[in-house]
Structures are given as C-alpha cells and as structure tokens.
Amino acid sequence: MWYVLEGDYRFKVGDAMFRVSEGGMAFGPRGAPHGFQNIGDTPSRLLVIATPSGVERFFEQCAELLPDRLDMEALTAITEANWSKTVGPPLGASDPL
C-alpha cells in the first residue's frame, strides 16, 4: 500500500494505470507486478506499508546508491537480492506521459 504524502504519482498495478495525488493511496496485492513514478515537477514523498516485513531492506539498499541516479542493472540486482524480480522497464520508459 502506498500513501502519497507529497506530490503527484502514477501507479501501475497489473494492467491498471492510475494517478494519485497528495493525500491519496494506492494498493497492490502481494505478488502483483507494480511500479510507480513521480509525475510532478518537484520532489515528492510516499509512505510504503508492506506486510510481512522485509521490504525496508530493499529501500535501504537502493538508498545506498544515491545520490547518483539508479541504473537498471543495480536496481535489478537489489530487487533479486530481496526475493523479487524486475518485470519491465520503469514507467517513464514503458509508458511515457
């Protein structure tokens, strides 16, 4: 589950694509392919809630790569190290605005 604390996002869960603005939320069932993209002009913030725990390790490892931009090879390696898989390019590449 994602809560948009600041900004505007678009989410893709399965084949569904939707936009969520500040104060809104999005839900993706466990195992569903998903992605999200900041579509605003400013930095934004999400609150991610997942159960069972463990996804925080993924985000911690991604944060270690910053402030450089994440490349897909590094992101894929982190994803696989955290028992998941990358199923496509980022939304900005697969479904440009």
Question: How would you characterize the overall build of this protein?
Answer:
There is one protein chain. Helices cover 25% and strands 29% of the residues. With 97 residues, the chain is α+β, with helices and mostly antiparallel strands. Strands 4-1-6 form a three-stranded antiparallel sheet, with no helix packed on it. A three-stranded antiparallel sheet has the order 3-2-5, with no helix packed on it. The two termini are 23 Å apart.
Question: Brief overview, please?
Answer:
With 97 residues, this protein is α+β, with helices and mostly antiparallel strands.
Gross morphology: globular
- In the CATH scheme, what's the topology name? Jelly Rolls
Helix proportion = 10-25%
- Computed CA radius of gyration, to the nearest angstrom: 13 Å
Instruction: Catalogue the unreliable spans.
Output: none
Could you state the order of secondary-structure elements as H and E?
A: EEEEEEHHH
Domains (count) = 1
The largest sheet is: 3 strands, antiparallel
Distance between the termini: 23 Å
The CATH class assignment is: Mainly Beta
